[in-house]
Amino acid sequence: MIGEVTGIRRIRMLYLQLLYRCNFECLHCFHGERLRHADAFTADEAINLLTLMRDQYGTESVTLLGGEPFVHKDLPQVVRYAKQQLGLRVEICTNGYRIEPRLATIAPYLDLLRVSLEGVGSTNDHIRRSGSYQSALHALGLARGLGVPTGATMTVTSRNITEVLPLAGILGNLGVRQLKLHCLRPVGNAASHPELLITDSAAYADLRERLQAAELTIEVIVDEDLSEHGAPEICAPAAGPSEIDRIEADPRGALTMSCKAVGRDSHAFWYDKPANRIVHRPSPTDELTLAVPDVVYARV
Question: What is this structure's pTM?
Answer without folding.
Answer: 0.92
